[in-house]
Design a protein that fits this description.
Layout: H1 21-29, H2 32-45, H3 47-56, H4 60-65, H5 81-88, H6 90-123, H7 129-138, H8 144-158, H9 164-187, H10 192-200, H11 205-216, H12 218-234, H13 237-242, H14 250-258, H15 265-285, H16 287-296
Helix pairs in contact: 3-15, 5-15, 6-9, 6-12, 6-14, 7-9, 9-12, 10-11, 12-15, 12-16, 14-15
Length: 300
């Protein structure tokens, strides 16, 4: 009897999934060219900043005669005379002080009040809590321009128009809705068991807020502080409306110098660079906390 032959043929393997062209190119290049490209983009993005720095270190005659890039072939153009004249300009130095007097209190008030309100909306029970929170969040859609004239009239009646306090209160009021919204959502992610354990140990609400909630909310609070500081420091619209000659911040003072550009070209460049460096220094000083705060809202 003839034995049945066994079919030794095998099923051909299924074709491999086609790798996208971009992934194949990236894999072949090993990421080296991608990194080089990103570095070049970053350097290109920094060109205006580098140009402003070099311009601030050149004399007015050199700035009128040639572009800032000529300093690479003639480094003798670099001088600190413009910064010396800047420090001798009372309007600019006083405006820098005014910027600090406006920005620091407006940032601290928003962080403190926003933290307290965020904790209250997240973990304290009181009548109409959710409706109050919706009302606060709805203020986010109110543009600053709508409130300029009514609040200017109000400040004029109570004697705050043209004062630093008036500008601080305006920035605080418009910064609180976002602060409350951000911190309430962050504080709500704190485990309830942790708060209950602290209450069982006899901690009151203020002690619970100071000893438990604030340390855990440090990254979010730092992020809020950076956002508020940058917004207030770089603001010019509110300062133009609510300040006078003696209370103008650096943004308005530089804009005033632009009107006299022919006589103050040696002051504008160093003043603009200092105005830009201060918020950059604040950002880089709290960069780690800022990144942690941003990632905390996205990673569970």
């Amino acid at each position: 009897m003839t034995a049945l032959a066994t079919d030794t043929r095998t099923t051909p393997p299924a074709p491999a999934a086609r790798t996208p062209l971009g992934a194949r190119i990236t894999e072949k290049l090993g990421g080296t060219l991608v990194r080089v490209f990103l570095v070049l983009v970053g350097l290109f993005w920094l060109v205006p900043t580098i140009g402003l720095l070099i311009s601030s270190l050149r004399s007015p005659d050199d700035m009128s005669a040639s572009g800032w890039w000529t300093v690479f072939t003639k480094p003798s153009q670099l001088t600190f005379d413009s910064y010396r004249k800047l420090l001798e300009n009372g309007d600019i130095t006083h405006s820098l002080l005014n910027s600090l007097l406006i920005t620091v209190p407006a940032t601290v008030l928003v962080v403190v009040i926003g933290s307290l309100a965020g904790y209250a909306f997240a973990w304290m029970e009181f009548p109409g809590r959710d409706w109050w929170f919706i009302g606060v969040v709805s203020l986010l859609v109110v543009p600053v321009q709508v409130a300029l004239i009514p609040i200017a009239e109000l400040f004029g009646k109570i004697g705050l128009f043209g004062t630093i306090l008036g500008v601080v209160l305006f920035h605080t009021g418009f910064g609180l809705p976002f602060a409350v919204f951000l911190l309430r959502n962050f504080f709500a992610e704190i485990p309830r068991e942790l708060l209950e354990a602290a209450r069982l140990d006899g901690a009151g609400e203020l002690r619970l807020f100071a000893r438990v909630v604030m340390p855990l909310g440090g990254p979010a609070i730092a992020s809020l502080g950076i956002f508020q500081f940058l917004w207030v420091w770089n603001d010019m619209l509110v300062a133009l409306v609510f300040t006078k000659s003696g209370t103008q911040p650096i943004t308005v003072a530089l804009q005033t110098q632009v009107r006299q550009f022919g006589n103050n070209i040696d002051v504008l460049a160093p003043g603009a660079f200092i105005s830009m460096v201060i918020p950059l220094a604040v950002f880089f000083a709290f960069q780690r906390q800022f990144v942690s705060g941003v990632m905390a809202g996205a990673v569970k």
